[in-house]
Amino acid sequence: MVILWTDALIFLLILVVCALGFYWHDKEHIKRPLQKIAASKVGVASLVVLLFFVFIGLLDSVHFKPGQGKNNELISCLDYLAKPLIEQGEKTYSAPFAARLYSKEVIVLDDGTTKWGYPRLVFGGSHLTNPDIELLPDILKKAFYGLAQGVALSGLFMLSYLGIRYQRQNKLARFGEAPASTKTALLVTFIIVSLGYTLIYLSSYYHVFGTDKVGEDVFYQTIKSIRTGLVLGTLTTLIMLPLAIVFGILAGFFQGWLDDIIQYLYTTLNSIPSVLLIAASILMVQVYITNHEQDFTSVIMRADMRLLFLCLILGVTNWTGLCRLLRAETLKLREMEYVQAAHALGVKKSIILVRHILPNLMHIILISVVLDFSSLVLAEAVLSYINIGVDPTTYSWGNMINGARLEMAREPIVWWSLSAAFIFMFGLVLAANLFADTVQNAFDPRHNS
Amino acid sequence: MIQYIIRRFFYAFPLLLGVNILTFVLFFIVNSPDDMARMQLGQKHVTEQSIANWKQQHGYDRPLLWNPKASGEEKVTQTIFYQKSVGLFLFRFGVSDSGRNIGADIQERMWPSLALALPTLIVGLLVDVTFALMMVLFRGGTLEQAGIVLCVALMSISSLFYIIGGQFIVAKVLKLVPISGYDDGLIAIKFLILPVLIGVFSGVGSGVRWYRTLFLEEVEKDYVRTARAKGLSETQTLFRHVLRNALIPILTGVVVILPLLFMGSLIMESFFSIPGLGSYTIDAINSQDFAIVRAMVFLGSVLYVVGLLLTDISYTLVDPRVRLS
Asked: Which domains does chain B have, with CATH numbers?
């Protein structure tokens, strides 16, 4: 097993989240908003969708070297599971569920003669003898099989869930008695597992989302892109939070020259257009990487380094907004009676900061983290388009859109790469936005009406 | 007032100096001019001589901060920092790495940028405020619920999809406007309609949501209740009281980005090949022309600082409670 930098940070992040969850699990002021989230149908549904994305992202974050031999490229667990998709490439473009290539070529027939036409795909629909007649019925049949198996699988999930409930409550828990949000969660899980299984089942016979210019499966590309989006959305906040929290609290609490310096710092950073600052930094990183080629042995490691740098840069450009909010809130908090009382009782300043100020800023931090997530995922696409995003070899939705942009001008057009990226990106960002709304409603004291 | 403006002007100076130092550190200290030369000339077969030539051609052959070989005041002036960074304060942008005059380029390219950004801002503002007011008017009903859901859905689509989709449907399939390009004078309108429309459309989701929260905050206030108690109809209260008071945050939010409109929109301009500052910047980034990127960073921060100043002034003009002191 090989741990890349971003992998390590992701697992660190999960550790932090777990620790926070453990620390908070019996705190009343956190419990109430959490219950509010759990009671909201939209919140629970979007959370389930997000968790599925996270699950795929985590599968893709465990890297190892498959063999000791020469073929020493790093692969992840996801690559291992999706092996057929990687190996079964085509020659060039092919449409979703196609059995033939998208462009005409010279085909050599069995008897040695040549013909001008659409050649058969190596992988997609290769089990068919006469795709012109059999293709549609076969897709429908396979889809039905897949769906039936998926439904059976998710039904098994549901049964085991009900079984656990039954054991816990020691009485037959009927589905009708469960709270509305639990039903929503189960329903969403049911839909995702069934559909997901159907897709996976179909993808072992066809290219579900077609293939791209070099014949790579688009379904595989979109799935791989999930990790990039998640890493950017979460690791950036991991880098941004310490900066924003420390500077914001210090500026608000101590005021004076410290406040002046910190304000100067974030106004300066803020006044530089963020895209340009990112561009400048990424150009510098590029220069650094090309001049220190010997430090980055494999392609994946180099791409990973660039991804990490991008998170770092986005974090450095993004902390100013949260810092300003935290500073303003700290200014308000330090005049509160309980902080004054702590002062009067002789509590040390550092302890006041940790025990009285920080916990009361938590709702702002939490809200801004979930709000930032979706905008960061969207920003990645734009940055990749300007060539200052992730490495061109990294799978990401931005790179997919960037590549597909020119395909729209082709005749006939190649629409599937773009659609696949659109569907998955929209799913992730929509779920994140809806979840952010729920979190904001639950944690923001102004919404408590 | 004038005193205040002068004071703010001097406050802007350390800010810009900070920006300048930051870009200087990024561009010259993190990576030396040698690295840049090697990058520009290609990685592999670069001789020391060609690097020295490149540096001399572009004026990077001086020491960074202090020139011990020169005499008198030239110890300071004959350095990269003085030559490349201090000139920016006087808006002397110098020559790009490909040998063009950056100042002239900026003057020429800022008008197409403005021609695209200003209509987008104005139309976008009108559309957003109208829809937000409508949602507030129908608050509590299914229409508002549908509006909120639609807004979140629109927000969740990347702006790239709006551009690609709009270009494909309007320009390629329906053939209503040219796909991309630009022309001087009134013919430009033909090229600008689609980007403006797409710009407005892609901002509708977040814009309407933002203005809606502004209006909702205002709607709950006491004076609005009084207005309703007087017997004014809901539309009257909305337009006469809520809208007018909510205009203050709307206006100041717009004023701060006004100067930045000159910078143009990066992706919009490059997708529609409009020769503005946005596409200028993208070209510079893609060809790794550090001189242009540095000039644009400085220009952007100057415009931002101007925007902050204008915001402060506009506050005093529209809100009599705020006094500058």
From this structure: 2-90 (no CATH), 110-318 (1.10.3720.10)
What CATH number corresponds to the domain at position A320? 1.10.3720.10
Helix axes A256-271, A299-333, angle to 10 degrees: 130
Q: In Å, how far is A88's CA from the nearest CA of chain B?
A: 29
Domain contains A40: no
Chain A residues inside the 8 Å CB shell of B300: 271-273, 276
Residue of B160, B170, B219 to mutate, interface with A, max A Cβ within 10 Å: B160
Domain of A325 in residue numbering reads as 231-448
**Terminal C-alpha separation, chain B:** 8
Give the chain A residue nearest B27 (alpha carbons): A284
Residue A16 lies in a domain: no
Decide: residue B179, CB within 10 A, 0-12 exposed, 13-18 middle, 19+ buried: middle
Inter-chain residue contact B43 with A290, CB threshold 8 Å: yes
Q: Is residue A184 assigned to a domain?
A: no
Report angle CA A378, A12, A377 to the nearest 5 degrees. Answer: 0
Please judge whether A271 and B152 are an interchain contact, meaning their C-beta atoms are less than 8 angstroms apart: no
- With cut-offs at 50, 70 and 90, classify the pLDDT of residue A69: low
> CA of B263: which chain A residue's CA is closest?
A273
Residue A225 belongs to some domain of the structure: no
A171 falls in which pLDDT band (50, 70, 90)? low
Scanning the structure block, which residue is given the tokens 């839909």? A191
Say which of A267, A273, A437 has its CB closest to residue B300.
Answer: A273
Q: Which of A46, A272, A422 to mutate to test the interface with B (most CBs of B within 10 A)?
A: A272
Average pLDDT, chain A: 84
| For residue A449, pLDDT beyond 70 | no
Q: Give me the DSSP letters along A347-389.
A: --HHHHIIIIIHHHHHHHHHHHHHHHHHHHHHHHHHHHHTT-S
Q: Would you say A195 and A150 are in contact if contact means Cβ atoms under 8 Å apart?
A: yes
Please answer whether residues A418 and A407 qualify as being in contact, where contact means their C-beta atoms are separated by less than 8 angstroms. yes
* Model confidence at A447: pLDDT above 80: no
Counted domains in chain A:
1
Q: What is the pLDDT of residues B55-97, one digit of tens each?
A: 777 777 777 767 777 676 676 667 777 777 777 777 777 777 7
pLDDT the model gives residue A169: 67
Q: Which two tokens stand for residue A106?
A: 């010279």
Top-ranked range on mean pLDDT: pick from A17-21, A93-97, A282-286: A17-21
Among B22, B172, B282, select the one facing A386 at the smallest CB separation. Answer: B282
A425 at the B interface (CB within 8 A)? Answer: yes
Give per-residue pLDDT as tens, A193-229. Answer: 888 888 888 888 888 888 888 888 888 889 989 999 9
